[in-house]
Amino acid sequence: MSTKLLPNTQAPALTVDLVGGSRFDLTSETPENFTMVVFYRGYHCPVCKGYLQKLNSLAGPCADAGLSVIALSMDNAERAAKSAAEWELADLRIGYGFSEQVARQWGLYISKAIRDTETDVFCEPGLFWIRPDGRLYLVDISNMPWARPDVEFLLSKVAFAVEKNYPARGDY
Fold this sequence. Notes:
Distance between the termini: 22 Å
Strand order of the largest sheet: 2-1-5-4-3-8-9
Helix content: 25-40%
CATH architecture: 3-Layer(aba) Sandwich
Strand content: 15-25%
Number of domains: 1
CATH topology: Glutaredoxin
Radius of gyration: 15 Å
Largest sheet: 7 strands, mixed
Number of helices: 6
Order of helices and strands: EEEHHEHEHEEEEHH
């Protein structure tokens, strides 16, 4: 069973290996404004490819807005490396190999393969903004590959959220 995450609560733990050999640990992130964690379905997903390519093209503006960004899937190291290389994601940190248990702690939907190209079990999309103190600010979880927030639109809201000290919503 998945967890229902509430804004203004501590984000679940998240430590994953990154394509290229380093490691990501959410507790070590020091963004100016938010860490944006983007869970994607995996190498098999053409919608993920387009979404992450768009996110990659916004890497500079994300950094300018004070966002630290990571995209990650349950894929193994080989499939994650193929995603990074073939999708030309040189400006994104790509994490991989987290467990179904971790996906459920983040409240993500889990799917089983329906095609040979898919991994046996994988998470559906999720996008989160986490404050520098580790509290969840924005929580967006989907059960379908094509239902995802517009990252360019979201990026335009970082300054508003910070300047207006806009509170996280939905924590009641």
